[in-house]
Amino acid sequence: MLAAICQFAATTDPKENARIIADFAERASNDGAKLLITPESSLIRLPGKGQSLLDHAEPLSGPFVEDLKAASKANGIAIIAGTYTPGDENRVVNTLAVVVHGELVTHYDKIHLYDAFAYKESDNVKPGSVEAVTVDIDGVLFGLTTCYDLRFPEIFRALSDAGAQAFVVPAAWIKGTSKEEHWFTLLRARAIENTAYILASGEAGEKCVGRSTAFDPMGLQLADLGDGPGYRVVEIDPNRVSEIREIVPTLAHRRFKVSAV
Question: Which residues are catalytic?
Answer without folding.
Answer: 40, 110, 147
